[in-house]
Design goal:
Elements lengths: L2 E3 L5 H9 L8 E8 L3 E5 L7 H14 L5 E7 L2 H7 L3 E11 L2 E10 L7 H16 L5 E2 L1
Length: 142
């Protein structure tokens, strides 16, 4: 599992990539929680709902009131792509948390079968790291 922090100077750029650009659009949404003037929870009710579909709604909530105290977004690689990348992958996650004026990104991976082998986790972490770097997202390791 990766635990990455964005430098303060990179947060605005990252939030633009997340909420205005197409950087994360191919990921599926598992859950979005936004605490602002009210608590908003968005969970997919279908097998696959892309970030591109949910993003305008999340952006509207974030921009509609006072600055949110917490934004938590759980994205995943769709199952077909996950199995293409890693045949034993059940789920590959990127978790984004905006809290206390900071952004943390963590990763997670689940296998179809129990194994003590951490190859999938390490490979997914490296893939996620390259994805972020390739999209101009600068971070520091926790």
């Amino acid at each position: 599992m990766l635990a990455l922090t964005l430098p303060e100077t990179e947060i605005k750029t990252f939030m633009g990539k997340l909420l205005r650009e197409e950087t994360f659009d191919t990921f599926d949404v598992k859950n979005v929680a936004i605490d602002s003037f009210a608590r908003f929870d968005i969970a997919a009710t279908e097998d696959r709902v892309s970030w591109a579909t949910i993003k305008p709604h999340a952006f509207s909530i974030i921009k509609s009131g006072s600055k949110p105290s917490i934004v938590k977004i759980i994205l995943s690689v769709n199952q077909v792509e996950a199995e293409t990348l890693f045949p034993d992958a059940k789920a590959l996650f990127i978790n984004i948390t905006f809290e206390n004026d900071g952004v943390m990104i963590t990763t997670g991976a689940a296998q179809k079968t129990f194994s003590m082998d951490k190859t999938l986790e390490r490979t997914w972490d490296e893939y996620a790291r390259k994805f972020l770097i390739g999209n101009g997202i600068n971070f520091t390791d926790e």
